[in-house]
Design goal:
Blueprint lengths: L9 E8 H4 L4 H8 L3 E10 L7 H8 L2 E4 L9 H16 L4 E5 L6 H9 L3 E6 L6 H6 L2 E4 L12 H18 L6 E2 H11 L13 H6 L4 E4 L8 E4 L16 H12 L6 E3 H12 L12 H6 L2 H6 E4 L2 E4 L1
Parallel strand pairs: 1-2, 1-4, 2-3, 4-5, 5-6
Antiparallel strand pairs: 7-9, 8-9, 10-12, 11-12
Helix pairs in contact: 7-8, 10-11
Length: 317
């Protein structure tokens, strides 16, 4: 499952480990799942003979109770029955997205089995007890404490963790010009941390979450649409170039000519940028004073007279 794409045609099964998570946040969870697809199975596992008014809450939520008597059950009988039902649904129903509502690490194997069969798996549980191994095993993970109230105050430790996550995601997803579109970045963040939710952090949109971070620079297009993100400058940029800086453009031209020796031939942007970075003495072109291929061409009459940029490619004139 790619969390950035619309999933309104998906068929969901929600399987709730009642004795692990309860029902207090389940309506909130159903609200969050409303944009994912249609819930065709809702089941909660526990001993409902001793649940009191919780049975009435089940009826209000439209959840089917799966009875497991304490007198006959072992400690893990709810987990076992939930896993059995999940496997049956895997082979005998049109369900393509499973929602496992539990903070129990015992479900990691089940999650892995469902995903290996090509199904999407969403997890949900208590943040203070949800094991990291379970969270990262899922395609998406919701913390049930977020019961509809957006948390506007975030502990400094959590804020630092989220900022570090953002920087990591930008670093692995930027192109050769050092930029990434917001939708791709959001998808990368949720793949790195399936529990990430900008709304739970107090922001109405992903763009506003980005703009609140000092670690990135957000560029909004004039006509609207997706934002572009790049790493913010952290102090003065130190540019390291080879001693013979007067000849770097000749060396770049020589390297490019080996890739495209005939007028009209093109070089993919990433390859052209890698060649230039090598002769500028930097790890990547965006670390140099030129930052982009167009800036590189504009800085050298020699290169500009022999090459031109066309989209994400360099063309020999």
């Amino acid at each position: 499952m790619t969390t950035g794409e619309p999933l309104t045609d998906r068929q969901l099964a929600v399987l709730i480990d009642f004795e692990n998570v309860g029902l207090d946040s389940i309506q909130w969870l159903f609200d969050q799942l409303s944009h994912v697809g249609r819930i065709i199975v809702k089941r909660a596992y526990g001993d409902w003979s001793a649940a009191g008014n919780r049975r009435d809450q089940l009826l209000q939520l439209g959840v089917e109770p799966i009875q497991l008597f304490h007198a006959a059950q072992s400690k893990n009988s709810s987990d076992i029955r939930l896993a059995i039902d999940a496997v049956e649904l895997l082979y005998q129903s049109p369900v393509d997205t499973f929602v496992i509502v539990s903070s129990d690490s015992d479900f990691v194997s089940l999650v892995n089995r469902l995903r290996a069969a090509g199904k999407a798996v969403i997890g949900a549980g208590r943040e203070e007890t949800a094991p990291h191994s379970l969270v990262i095993s899922c395609d998406r993970y919701y913390y049930l404490e977020k019961t509809g109230r957006q948390q506007t105050k975030i502990r400094s430790g959590k804020r630092k963790k989220r900022d570090n996550l953002l920087i990591r995601a930008v670093e692995v997803s930027i192109d050769e010009e050092g930029r990434v579109v917001g939708s791709k970045l959001h998808q990368t963040i949720q793949r790195l941390d399936p529990s990430f939710d900008f709304r739970a952090l107090g922001y109405a949109t992903f763009a506003k979450y980005l703009e609140a971070s000092s670690g990135v620079k957000v560029i909004r297009p004039r006509g609207g649409g997706d934002v572009t993100v790049e790493l913010a400058e952290q102090g003065p940029t130190v540019v390291t170039e080879p001693p013979d800086t007067t000849a770097w453009d000749i060396k770049v031209d020589d390297a490019w000519s080996k890739r495209a020796g005939v007028p009209g031939q093109s070089i993919p942007g990433p390859n052209a940028a890698a060649d230039a970075a090598k002769f500028l003495g930097v790890r990547k072109l965006s670390d140099s004073r030129y930052r982009t291929l167009q800036a590189l061409l504009d800085s050298s009459e020699f290169l500009n007279g022999r090459w031109r940029r066309d989209g994400n490619a360099i063309i020999r004139r």
